[in-house]
Amino acid sequence: MSGPLRKFQGSEGVSRRDLVVGATLVGGALLVGCSPADLMSAGSKVNVGAFGPFIQFDPDGAVTVLSKHIEFGQGSSTGLAAIVAEELDADWTRVKVVSAPANAKLYGNTTLGIQLTGGSSAISNSWEQLRKAGAGARAMFVQAAAAHWNVPAGEITVKDGVVGHASGKSAGFGELLVEAAKVAPPENPTLKDPKTFTLVGTARVQRKDSLAKSTGTARYTQDVQLPDMLVAMVAHAPRFGASVKSFDADAAKKVAGVVDVYQIPTGVAVVADNTYAARMGREALKVEWDEGKAETRSSATIAQQWRDIAAGKGPSDLKWQAFDSKGDASVASGGKGAEVFETAYDFPYLAHATMEPMNCVAIVDGNKVKLIHGSQAQTLDQMNAAKIVKTLPGSVEIETLFAGGSFGRRANFTSDYVAECVTIAQKVGHGRPVKLVWTREDDMRAGYYRPLVHHAVRIRLDKDGYPASWRHRIVTQSIMKDSPMPSKGPEGPAIEGTAGSPYFKATPIVDAQLALPEGGVPVLWWRSVGATHTAFVMEHTIDQLALKAGKDPVEYRRALYAKAGEQGARHLAALNLAVEKAGPTATPGFTRGVAVHESFGSVVAQVAEVKLVDGEPRVGRVVTAIDCGVAVSPDQIAAQMEGGTCYGLSAALYGEITLTDGRVDQSNFDTYRVLRMNEAPVVETYVVPSGNAPSGVGEPGTPVIAPAVANALLALSKTPTGRLPFVRAQG
Questions:
Q1: Is 244 helix (H, G, I), strand (E, B) or coil?
Q2: Do 383 and 470 fall within a single domain?
Q3: Same domain, 430 and 535
């Protein structure tokens, strides 16, 4: 997901307004001189050991790395541990990783400013931080050994957790632990030259969570069983924005195992001794909904309204925001005699469809709260829980467990399912644990969605068939509207992938604007966020322009990257590597399409081989090249490219949430089709060599596959794709 707050505190420092906002979130008390991190961590009692907040040592010298980021399948916890182990020179076989406590001051995302996993930033924001943590701890052991053996520190070596000296003296971390803990940590420890790395960037970095997940010992929220624990399920309104008018719980309370029924802000909760009883009790409820403020439009109606807005037929009070502009915008609509290319694209709502639907365990005892769940945004969960029970955020303890996917769903400004669980646990009272369980139908019909989006593009071409002017309009619903830190200027998640594009850089005149009409459907970042639609628009448009100009799509891109100069250099390198590895010809029976896109600091190029099977696209081979800076774990990068490609392909082929009169039509995988195993392509991944700091990997593989497939279909049929999903678009 793209960072929901981008950066909670601005690069220019913390403003008084930021402090007021932060203080409001924790109960309204402005603490003079406190930073947002101070406010969001107020009340926390996390103890930091001698080696800092990220490293702990067992008496036998084994190393534990504390990960501030959730592990929900992306493999970041292993990469984070490897960064520490590299600088520490630890024995990789004796390194484990656990979730850090919730504390924004100690474990805040250095990019986003709060403790949150998002924006494909787990490795990138931790790179320098964890290198220094590992190097600092190593220096402490070196100093301890030097003092113990009475030798110069410069003569001490560390390898695989063993501290040694040329005299033959050696000791493990455990033997020097007490003395090393007394050494003052260096403020600026010396970091290794990346050329000397022996762990980072090698095949030795294998996942630390694979064994537990393979043997069933990995702990997820559904695995949590506590004494006297209740299970809750919530009846949500069938239309977004509706509220409870009245309800009859008599039949529900007669269900064996049902303990009580409560009205909460988001619906009616049934609390029972077990999940089955809670579900049966919920089915027995009779609820009358107040739909006076509900969303009653169908998705087709909303899509047409977005198209009307792009065509200049929107409400007079709707403001357009320029996000990329240069040259004379009046020329961007085309001049006399100019050859003009026009196209438009429609993108549907998409569900996150995580394999593990939302769930949480909450214990509320007075003004103290404990949460046990796969928390993607610990700080947001702390703040929202604290508001409900009227306590300090730091008094909300969070035990972060594994989670079965997220794609952005588990991090939202209201902490929706977490807030429900805390509210119910507070009503139950007496410190009794409550596990809230959402079914897949709950999450698909009452969750959050990738926004419905419309793009309208008008390009005037020069005599060689390249863009001379580019007019671009994006219409979509705001993700950031209700955030505690709304966007300053055009909303980033809506325009990322277009703003700053090398294609805009290569075009003399650009007029790109964004409109954010109101909508009643709850929307959220979805894996790769804005790039889910902007990559498609930019890359499929480029292939259509190349076709119109009678040029090879690869050569056409190369020419545009040359025009863009330095801004196109990384795109060109990734494109060249992907094309080289793909080879000169496609697999017999398949047609190739190419796409290149930058997201979350990384550039991904893909060559996809596609054919039609019973009228539907079938992808056979995908060759991927990624420039993501230093490759901490090459195997995991390949896995992320495979997973991201399949996730993006699934949505591109089949993904669509539709509404009829405001009600979501889909409910489970029988109506929300996803990619099957036999439809998954073979994905080859190649990493562009780089000495730059790591950039994002979790999301950049997702947005590129859709335009690559569309471009292959364009080459096959000469017919462009103007809407997704493909199966519907082709039908």
A1: strand
A2: no
A3: no
